[in-house]
Each structure stands twice: as C-alpha cells, then as structure tokens.
Amino acid sequence: MNNNKHVFYSGRLRSIKFALHGIRFMVKTEPNARIHLAITILVIIAGLVSDLSVTRWLALVFAIGIVWITEAVNTALEKLCDYANGKEYNSAIKAIKDVAAGAVFIAALCSILTGILVFTIK
C-alpha cells in the first residue's frame, strides 16, 4: 500500500512540475502574459494596502484567475495551430486564434470592471 501512495504522490508532483513549466513557458514567451503578471502583482499589492473584505478578495481572485486561464488556453491553442498549420495562411486557423484572443480580451475587460467595482464602490 505504501508503494502505491508513493507512486500516486510522485505522479501528482510530476504533474505540478509540468504545470509550472507551462506557466513559466507562457510568461517567458508571451508578452501579454508578462503584462498580466505585472497587473496581477499590482492588484494584489493594492488589495493588501486597501484592507479588502473576503468577498472583495474573492472577486479579485476569480477575475485574476479567469484572465490567466484564458491566456493559458489561448497560448496553447496558438501553439497547437502554429504547429498543425505550419507557415501557410489558413482562414479557419485565423478564426480559431482570433476567437481565443477574443476570449482573453473579454476576460480582461471583465477583470478591469471587477477591479473598478472592488476598489471604488464602498
């Protein structure tokens, strides 16, 4: 039984390592991810300085999370499309990439609105 637990936990640790590698890759290779990182840090600092309620922190955490999730999915789709399509123009690939980028844009706009509401409404 102990060996099964070891295999289970070592597999989970490897999964976490791969996930962290993917996040590091995204931040290193995607300029927008670096912008998201800078804004995330600024929002966390502003939240700490503002002594926000738990409810307001939850709103910020969800807003930040949605932006990061959509950016990660967008990056993965872009890399997959680039790999599958090569250098040739393809209107379907363009549409896929545009829609994925649009999802990040929507998430960012909603996140900005959430931040405005959290920090300005008493």
Average of pLDDT: 94
- Distance between the first and last residues' Cα: 54 Å
Cα shape: flat
Radius of gyration: 18 Å
Strand portion: under 5%
Q: How is the biggest beta sheet arranged?
A: none
Topology order in helix (H) and strand (E) letters: HHHH
Question: What is CATH's topology name?
Answer: Helix Hairpins
Number of strands: 0
Low-confidence regions: none
Separate helix tally: 4
CATH C-level name: Mainly Alpha
Report the helical percentage: over 70%
CATH architecture: Orthogonal Bundle
Structural class: mainly alpha
Number of domain units: 1
What is the strand and helix layout of this fold?
Elements: H1 2-29, H2 31-50, H3 54-85, H4 91-120
Helix pairs in contact: 1-2, 2-3, 3-4
Explained architecture:
- It is a single chain.
- The protein has a single domain, classed as Helix Hairpins.
- Helix 1 crosses helix 2, helix 2 runs antiparallel to helix 3 and helix 3 packs antiparallel against helix 4.
- The chain is mostly helical and 122 residues long.
- The radius of gyration is 18 Å and the shape is flat.
- It contains four helices and no strands.
- The longest helix has 32 residues.
- The relative contact order is 0.10.
- 90% of the residues lie in helices and 0% in strands.
